[in-house]
C-alpha cells in the first residue's frame, strides 16, 4: 500500500503544478534529501508534459480526498498488522536466492565492476534511496518502428496496385496458332485412342477374372455333416445300345452292296448285277396279264420307272 500511495502521489505531481504534497513521515525524513537529488537529476534529462501543456480547470480537485483515504488506510494497516507494511524500503529489496543446477561461478560473471568493489558502512548510509517512479513503456527501437512503417507502406502499395499482370500480345500470327492447335488436336486424339484401347483391355481382363466356372452335373460331391462325411454319387443314366446297321449284300453276287436300284429297291454291287436285276424285272412284267400299261410299256420296249408305269 505504501508503494501504491507513492506512485499515486508521483503521478499527481506530474499531472498538476499546484497540487498539495503529502507530508513526510519520520522514517522517510532521512531519505528525503537523496530523493530530491535523484528527482532533480531525472528532471534534467526528462522533459515533462506538465511544463508544456496548459493547466486544467479542475486540476487537483480530488487530491485532498485521495490524501485522506490513503492516511486512513495507513492507520488501519499500522494498527491491525503491527506496522509490518511500513518497514524500511531496504526489506523490499531483499530477494531470496534462486536455487539452480548451474555452477556458482556463472553468477560472478553477471556482476559489474562497481559491485565487485568493496564499500564501507559509511558509504552505504550516505547512498541516497531512490523512489520508484512510474515510467512510460518504450514503444520500441527506431529500427523496429522504421520496419513497421515500411511494411505498412508496402501493404498499402500492394493493395492499391494492379493485382493481375497485364495481357501481353504474342508476336505469333493467327496461322501459326492454328497450325499448333491442329498438331495438338492430333496428339490428343492419338492419346485418347491409346487410352480407350487400354481401358478395353482392362475391362476384358476384369470380365475374365470375374467369370465363375461351375461344374455341370452329374458330378460327385462330398458332404460333411454332424454324423460324418459322405460321398454323393449321382444316378447313372442307362443308355440304350444302338442297333447295329445290317450290311447290304448284292442280291446277285452276294457281295457288299454299294448301290440300290431305285425301281426295285434291290441292292447291287456291280453294273452286271444291275443288268441282271432289270432283266429279271422285265420277265416279271411279262408275266403280268390284263394290264394295259404294262402291255404298252413292253410293246414300246422302253425302260420306264415302275411308279410312272403304274401311275396311269
Give me the secondary-structure topology:
Blueprint lengths: L1 H14 L16 H14 L17 H18 L8 H4 L13 H4 L3 H4 L4 H6 L15 H19 L13 H37 L10 E4 L4 E4 L26 E2 L6 E2 L2 H17 L4 H9 L5 H6 L1
Antiparallel strand pairs: 1-2, 3-4
Protein name: Vacuolar protein sorting-associated protein 72 homolog
Family: Belongs to the VPS72/YL1 family.
Organism: Parascaris univalens
Q: What is the 3D form?
A: elongated
Percent helix: 40-55%
Order of helices and strands: HHHHHHHHHEEEEHHH
| Strands side by side in the biggest sheet | 1-2
Q: pLDDT below 50 for ≥5 consecutive residues: which ranges?
A: 1-31, 97-105, 304-312
- How many E strands? 4
Which strand-content bin applies to the residues? under 5%
Instruction: Give the class from helix and strand content and strand pairing.
Output: mainly alpha
User: What Rg, in angstroms, do the CA atoms define?
Assistant: 68 Å
Distance from first to last alpha carbon:
158 Å
Q: Give the count of helical stretches.
A: 12
Mean pLDDT across residues: 70
Largest sheet: 2 strands, antiparallel
Structure description:
It is built from 12 helices and 4 strands, in the order αααααααααββββααα. It has 312 residues and is mainly α. Among the domains are: 2-126, no CATH class; 259-311, no CATH class. A hairpin with a 6-residue loop joins β3 and β4. The relative contact order is 0.05. Residues 1-31, 97-105 and 304-312 have low confidence and may be disordered. This is Vacuolar protein sorting-associated protein 72 homolog. Belongs to the VPS72/YL1 family. InterPro entries: Vps72/YL1_C, YL1_N. It comes from Parascaris univalens (Nematode worm).
